[in-house]
Amino acid sequence: MSLLERAGLAVLHRMDPEQAHDMAHKALKAGFGPKPGPISSPRLETTLAGMTLANPLGLAAGFDKNATLLHPLAHCGFGFLEVGAVTPRAQPGNPKPRLFRLGEDRAVINRFGFNNQGMEAAAERLATRPHSLPIGLNLGANKDSTDRAGDFARVLSHCGAFLDFATVNVSSPNTEKLRDLQGKDALAALLAGVMEARAGLPRRIPVFLKIAPDLSEAELADVAEVAANARIDAIIATNTTLDRSGLTSPHRDQAGGLSGAPLFEKSTRVLARLHRLTDGNIPLVGVGGIATAEQAYAKIRAGATAVQLYSALVYSGISLVTDILRGLDALLERDGFDTVAAAVGTEREIWL
After folding, report:
1. CB within 8 Å of 76: residues ≥ 6 apart
2. CATH code at position 66
3. In a domain, 228, yes or no
4. What pLDDT band is residue 272 in, cutting at 50, 70 and 90?
5. pLDDT in tens, 93-121
6. In a domain, 1, yes or no
7. Would you call 237 exposed, middle or buried from its count of C-beta atoms within 10 A (0-12, 13-18, 19+)?
8. Cβ partners under 8 Å of residue 20, min gap 6
């Protein structure tokens, strides 16, 4: 981390978290972000659901909710980007304050509630997106919708022509009863509608499913079965958690989804179980608590084809992307793996 980035983070951490988030956006738009482009090497190059990635590290949804940072983010070193969540109609989300730093725990709690400018605005920006790396959209449902399952299909139909993949997000804890859509029958019906919408796009794109880390063993087995039957192209494991075990920050009891360091072990165990349940036949994207190359590598060896991060940027800055990828390349070389794919799932059993 440069002295400039360290100073910038110190300033941001003195601000209200949501104001700091907006200021980080302005800095990236002004050109203050790194500009290495997608970082790659023969070891780091990989594929995810048929997409060629320069490297396996992606940006998780939530940082760029409205697809306003596509061009600057494309230069930050990521192998792929996921923006959103986007709902059919614009909505303000939950009342402020709704974002909390838990510095003592290297964590974040948010209860944004799918605040976004809607699919029309997102589609306009995605239409002029960069094509130097795969870009996907996290699909959401309006809080006051009478047909939440249908909302996912509507957003996909409207924005799908500009995407490389789309993610069905039924795992946010911040929209009331949204996680109910992870139930077996409800999820099967929802995915059927999304797949029908995909069939109407000008070209086929992969559809991912993002799940919560708080599912029981039986619920996780149901998700794996439904995903296989629906021919989901990948599963993202996991979203934020409602668990507050072991936290020390004064903000630990705030309502919302917890992300960051405390989620790493929980989400990695879900990832490993899902890899076993699917027999490795559905690509998995590991997300939750990644802040080092070693943690990204652990996710891959637990069963992830690719990984994503977001909350660690709050504490380590955008240069973390380069640091993790250089470290990951070195770890793969150390252990004799010629490719990322060769390492996937090789230490799954230690997480079960």
Report:
1. 33, 34, 35, 36, 59, 318, 321
2. 3.20.20.70
3. yes
4. very high
5. 999 999 999 999 999 999 999 999 999 99
6. no
7. buried
8. 12, 13
Q: Which residue is catalytic, options 171, 172, 311, 316?
A: 172
> Is 31 a domain residue?
no
Q: Which residues pair with 59 in a beta bridge?
A: 81, 309
Within the chain, where are the H helices? Answer: 3-12, 17-29, 70-73, 119-126, 148-159, 184-199, 217-230, 264-277, 293-302, 312-316, 320-334, 340-343
- For 30, the 3-state DSSP assignment is coil
Is 172 an active-site residue? yes
Q: Which residues have a Cβ under 8 Å from the Cβ of 162 and sit 6 or more positions away?
A: 123, 126, 127, 129
Cα(145)–Cα(290) distance, integer angstroms: 34
Residue 9 falls within a domain, yes or no?
Answer: no
pLDDT at 56 over 90: yes
Give tens-digit pLDDT for 20-55.
999 999 999 999 888 877 799 999 999 999 999 999
The reported pTM is 0.97
> Containing domain of residue 256, as a range?
36-351
Q: Give the count of domains, the chain.
A: 1
